[in-house]
Task: structure prediction
Amino acid sequence: MNNREQWGSRLGFILAASGSAVGLGNIWKYPHMAGQNGGAAFTVVYLICILIVGLPILLGELAIGRNTQLSPVGAFNKLSGLSKWKWVGFLGVASAFVILSFYGVVGGWTLKYTILALSGGFDALSGQPDISGKVFSDFIGSSFQPVIWQLIFMSFCIGIIIKGVKSGIESGAKIMMPLILVILGLLVFKGLSLEGGKKGLEFLFKPKFSDLNPSSIVMALGHAFFTLSLGMGTMITYGSYLDKKQNLFSSAIWVILLDTFIAMLAGTAIFTIVFAMGADPSAGAGLIFVVLPTIFPQIGGGVIWGALFFFILFMAALTSAISILEVITAYFVDEKGWSRNKATLLFGGVISLVGVFCSLSLGDFNITNFMQVSFFDFLDELSSKYMLPIGGALTALFILKKWSIPVFLDELLIGVKERKYEKSFYQNVLKICLIISSLIVGLIIINEVFDLLFDQSLQKMAGF
Ligand code: PFF
Result:
């Protein structure tokens, strides 16, 4: 266990962990969710969820990882004395399989659109959302092209993970995260300088609480998990490569700040451009792949701005995808004694194969046809609505019931130089937050299950 690889520096760890958090969730999912659910009102609820539910579970995962120096299955096993809690770890490994299978497909789309933008391919789509919509659906529904792009994306992912924690994940994050920040900053600057762009700011930051409904609240909560990469042991795995010198609390705050800041920057860049060009801000999931390609050609230097935008989307997807693959690799290395190369190549390959079925399901070949849903959507819903929240709630319960709050706090306090209050104060705060998170998440899951089984959810009962 002594030769376990560790992060090279505190900055490296923070960039890697925020690289995991910042992904398609921030740049693709968040802006269209906010766009369709009351703009800033949604943002306010989402921020509250991040602080009340996200922060305590993020701290919990990091502390479990650092304390045990093991990936999720081994970590739960060690802390619970080989009891059934290890299944929470297995759930994490299973979630990683499920998420990366469809995440890799969208990662492939980001690469394709980067190249399309660079080659001037958006020109023919200028101002024509219908044509752009058709180009996009023809592309994702075809059998060959998206699969090739997905496989290229997965090869990048496998290539980085094979190199290991320091020279792979950390070095990658040190290059890609600053690039994402700088390019997004430039895009925001460009968007704000366009005439009419500032209306986008109002849309994103002025709260309209009348537009908020119970289903947006459920959505904001689910998204808080997804965006912080919680509920499947990613942060346990990343925490397990930490030494005992670091202040976990301030690192977690950094990860949350960077994740939120980048989501806001992405929202600002997108909505200032959308408003300046008079496009539809509530276009949904197609906002990025359908609407944006129609407006980039209309702004000066559109080829470069368009390519840069999809390139940061690609980098954001990649820094997240590697963290998902690392959960699986670390399991086989820690628990089965496999070499990093063998685990990464074999399971990166298996996931790529499942991803091929995911991609094909958007065209003619859908193995979940009998459920009236594409295999792609099935995996997306299964993970973000059920697996991650259940994993997160179980992690909170594990800390409350098994590991115990005082031991958790002691782990958190390692590396903290001075503390303002008595230990009992922190213990109470942690306890209350974890109880609230598990209760809220439990409620959401029950709500979703009711909706699934009886077509009856709180939102529907309230008439939304
Ligand atoms: N946080 C990533 C995003 O916002 O796109 C998605 C993700 C990565 C979820 C890693 C879960 C995970 F373990």
Q: What stands out?
A: The first helix runs from residue 10 to 21. Residues 20-21, 23-26, 99, 226-227, 229, 232, 234, 320, 323-324 surround 4-fluoro-L-phenylalanine (CB under 6 Å). Residues 55 and 210 are 28 Å apart (CA to CA). The two ends are 53 Å apart (CA to CA).
